Amino acid sequence: MNSALSKYMTLAVPRYTSYPTAPQFDASIDGEAYGAWLARLDPAEPISLYLHVPFCDELCWYCGCNMKLAARYGPVAEYLDSLIGEIDLVAARLSGRLRVSHLHWGGGTPTSLKPDDLARAMLALRSRFDFTDEAEIAIESDPRTLTAEMIERIGALGFNRASFGVQEFDPKVQRAINRIQPPELVATCVEGLRAVGVADINFDLIYGLPHQSVETITATVARCAEMAPDRLALFGYAHVPWMAKKQRLIDEAALPGAEARLAQARAAAEKLQAAGYLAIGLDHFAKPEDPLAIAAREGRLRRNFQGYTTDQAETLLGFGATAIGRTPEGYVQNIAETGAWARAIAEGRPPIGRGRAFAGDDKLRGAVIEQLMCVGAVDTAALGALHEAPPDWCARELESLAPMTAEGLLSIEAGRVEVTEAGQPLVRVVAAAFDRYHARAQKRHSVAV
After folding, report:
1. What does the pLDDT look like over 18-38, one tens digit per residue?
2. Same domain, yes or no, for 299 and 154?
3. Residue 68: pLDDT band by 50, 70, 90 thresholds?
4. What is the pLDDT of residues 358-406, one digit of tens each?
5. Range of the domain at 144
6. Which tens digit of pLDDT belongs to each residue from 143-169?
7. What is the pLDDT of residue 358?
8. Same domain, 74 and 163
9. How many domains does the chain have?
10. Is residue 330 part of a domain?
11. Would you say residue 346 lies in a domain?
12. Residues 313 and 388 in one domain
């Protein structure tokens, strides 16, 4: 392994799906502030929507998401009622009827809803918002619990993209993370969705899981390639049991070390590219004709809480407990506890728990970090001029990156930073140099690789 790479790969850094990152959110932004931001949105600009369903039918030990087991359906149905109430409450604060270019249902497991309830929520959205003709309408699903009835309803409701958490097909690894799903089960769900018109399929894979090896992850990639998903994301397992208590059920002694994680990531990436997928950003892969690959080629790739995206909207409205939203004025995050979230909605208040208003040079630094995360290069001088910053606005940051330059991990010339092929796995470390909050962040992050 490159000795310089090993020096940085275990550093804890954010994933940079936002800037400022979520640990910088605080209670200074509440429902009243969010209501004012909503009222000032431009009705002429398209927006995106995210809906969070925190319920799952089974517990996956590796998961770091906000979720709870749905032992019975009653609480799920009550949650859905509150979710529709939040849609109405937020829409009433807008200055007009906005157009939606992207809709994403995440979780948890959105397909833990009954088909009629999913349809009821979609009706509520369409009654409050207009969808563009080319809108991407996506839903996350668990193949272990996806029913034929739900597949039919997903197609009838106009969804055009679905994603599955494959993670790993090796039985030993699956037992170690409590997610048993044979490849044949996933293939059946993929075929069913395509048959009802859901043409675009995403898979999520994870490296660094207990008992995982180069051999198991490459075998998984080979099985995935046979199903021909349009996009795949390859994430490193983030073992954060101090935050995700369910991860305490994982045998830490079975987790691969840093060098093994890197070997798995590289082997899986090589296998995906050999299968015809193009590498997109840090950890995504797509067929050459997929809109994500086209956006990357044309310099239109973006990054948000769903990862890499074609979404160009500056506003993302988040619905559901713990959902995060963004407006041109800042970020908001809903209350995480479902009871408190529902009570706020019942009282007619946007259920905001915390947030962050953009201040100072946040937007400039966010643009620099997004460029690095999306294309591995950024012209800090050009972006600085665009944001009316002084010519030396990031002189200290560039100086801090000098060691990585000397080690061949990146190049810096006239303010242009470009990550080399050797340094590509460390793009989050490079991005962190421009994060003025990271050094004093109080929360721990996952390792860089």
Report:
1. 999 999 999 999 999 999 999
2. yes
3. confident
4. 999 999 999 999 999 999 999 999 999 999 999 999 999 999 999 999 9
5. 11-318
6. 999 999 999 999 999 999 999 999 999
7. 98
8. yes
9. 2
10. no
11. no
12. no
204 φ, ψ (degrees, to nearest 5): -110, 130
- Tens digits of residue pLDDT in 272-294: 999 999 999 999 999 999 999 99
Q: Answer yes or no: is 388 within a domain.
A: yes
- Say if residue 256's pLDDT is above 70: yes
- 3-state SS, the chain, equals CCHHHHHHCCCECCCCCCCCCHHHCECCCCHHHHHHHHHCCCCCCCEEEEEEECEECCCCCCCCCCCEECCCCHHHHHHHHHHHHHHHHHHCCCCCCCEEEEEEEEECCHHHCCHHHHHHHHHHHHHHCEEEEEEEEEEEECCCCCCHHHHHHHHHCCCCEEEEEEECCCHHHHHHHCCCCCHHHHHHHHHHHHHCCCCEEEEEEEECCCCCCHHHHHHHHHHHHHHCCCEEEEEECCCCCCCCHHHHHCCHHHCCCHHHHHHHHHHHHHHHHHCCCEEECCCEEECCCCHHHHHHHCCCCEEECCEEECCCCCCEEEECCCCEEEECCEEEEECCCHHHHHHHHHCCCCCEEEEEECCCCHHHHHHHHHHHHHHCEEEHHHHHHHCCCCCCCCHHHHHHCHHHHHCCCEEEECCEEEECCCCHHHHHHHHHCCCCCHHHCCCCCCECC
Whether 63 maps to a domain, the answer reads: yes
Mean pLDDT, rounded, for 29-48: 97
